[in-house]
Amino acid sequence: MTMKNLTLALALLLQLSLIGQSTFPFDVVLEPLTITNLPGMQSYAAAQHNGKWLIIGGRIDGLHQRQPWQAFNAAGHNTSMYVIDPVAQTFYSAPLSGLGNDTLVAQLSSTNANFTQVGNYLYLLGGYGLDASAAHITHPMLTVIDVPSTIDDIVQGGTLDSTAFTHFSDEDFAVTGGKMLYLDGTFYLVGGHRFDGQYNPMGHNTFTQAYTEKVLPFTVSGTFPSLSISKGTPMVDTDELHRRDYNVTYMMDGGQTYFTAWSGVFQKTANLPFLNAVEVRDTGIYSVPGFSQYLNHYHCPTVSLYGENQAAMYTLFFGGIAQYYYDNGVLTQDNDVPFVKTIGVVEKRNGSYSESYSSTEMPGLLGAGGEFFPDHNLAANGEIFLADSLGTDTTWIGHIFGGISSPGANIFFGGMTNNSIASPTLFKVGFVRNSGLGVLESNYGDNLGLLVSPNPSNGKLIVQIQSQLQGMTAFEVFDTAGKMMLRTEVPTKDGANTIDLGALQIAAGKYVLTATQGGARQSINFIWN
Questions:
Q1: In contact, 13 and 414? CB cutoff 8 Å
Q2: pLDDT of residue 284
Q3: DSSP readout, 438-482?
Q4: What is the pLDDT of residue 517?
Q5: Among 76, 337, 406, 419, whose CB has the most other CB atoms within 10 angstroms?
Q6: Model pLDDT, residue 8
């Protein structure tokens, strides 16, 4: 073995020493299904009944364009409702225009609406799109839909009956990109923002935007369609709830059910995702201490499991968009926030969160704006699977449908947005029980929070690190062949540190930065220009 290969082997050995074993007891299996002529859809609202899915709104094109006159245009609106039968592998549709109500039709063709299903009814709130006069707005509406009746109308006659819909107008419901959940008789509208006007990425005066920065509880009472709404007192947090386009999932812990909000965008001080998670409980809003979510930052399909034997709660995230991903086992930072293939796994055990990733990847840059449809015969409450009740052979727990399919990781800044599409593919999602060794867990428990900012860098290398103790931290830079280009030790204080490692006398290219502090060690990729 040459000295160069020995150095590379040692570097890889050190990297692998960071990877422990998750207790997640399953391997993930994905099986694609294609339904002839089914259009792709992303960022839609959905419900299901007796094995059939109801798809409402969203976009039938890919990632939005950068130009205001093309972004979120009328041609990309989904102006039909669809029923998908994944078992028979067929679909049905009906035009929204049959409802005969322009205001209702406009909301039901919007994108990124907040929705949740309770029994036979889908509650759909807000959403961004065109109003009846073709102006871009966030719709100030809540619509309640009789799901079984609507599915039957579409399947039997290809039409919609307005008596299966009732709606309310309320300015507090003008929210897009948030999440709506239901627990113990109360709806919770978590985060999101109001966006009125034409989108543009340059901040020009074509729109107004306001984050809600709150959780709005409300109840709906009465018998459909004669319903009434009562709003509760909002829980406001201007820091932790200043986020949108994220995932919020149900959690179980010690017999209690609550919500966790994962990542989302954008930080107040940077156009980057949040790296922290937030628990939403009836007692308040709590940022999860000592945990950074590096993977799966935008909304994507999620699966939740509770393992009583493991005394752990697991949340899986399928693809989407993220600031970080793994490249040959090394955590890689990309501040352009690319599309990713990663299937991330977050485990909560004994009050602590840790993140890992599955050895299975999405079979493409998929997931953003897609949804998971659970098998309600297996999910305990329609949302959370009980891990101990699943068998040892492959258990098919549901399906993923739609979302954006991207031809490249960073198409937004490369002028390739028109090459992305809304995916028409379904994926059966299965679990195969293993010994708990099916994912590799990065050593986030050491919580070094290693970042290079900016990345790519030039001139000098600025590093951020979350130190767990006061003392010396060693930094090493390796090239892709494993050759050490720099080693230095720097005093760090307990807590957040920003360190200037100076100008690197290295060629432009891709490198690995490793930080070692006590028994903790973390590596990330960076680019030097």
A1: no
A2: 95
A3: SEEE--GGG----EESSSSB-SS-EEEEEESSSEEEEEEEEETTS
A4: 83
A5: 406
A6: 34
β-strands 302-307, 384-386 pairing: parallel
The separation between CA 266 and the C-alpha centre of its own chain, rounded to angstroms, equals 13
The helix (H) or strand (E) run that includes residue 129 is strand 128-130
In angstroms, the CA 335 to CA 456 distance is: 8
Nearest to 286 by CA among 261, 269, 256: 261
pLDDT of residue 417: 63
pLDDT score at 147 = 99
Q: Are residues 435 and 455 in the same domain?
A: no
Strand-pairing partners, residue 330, are 327
Give residue 98's identity as a one-letter amino acid code.
Answer: G
Domain that holds residue 451: 3-15+446-528
Those residues with Cβ within 8 angstroms of residue 23's Cβ, 6 or more apart along the chain or in another chain: 307, 310, 312, 347, 349, 436
Number of domains in the chain: 2
CA dihedral 335, 461, 203, 421 (to 10 degrees): -20
Query: 484: domain CATH number?
Result: 2.60.40.3080
DSSP characters over 451-462: EESSSSB-SS-E
Phi, psi values for residue 248, rounded to 5°:
-130, 125
What is the value of pTM for the model shown? 0.83
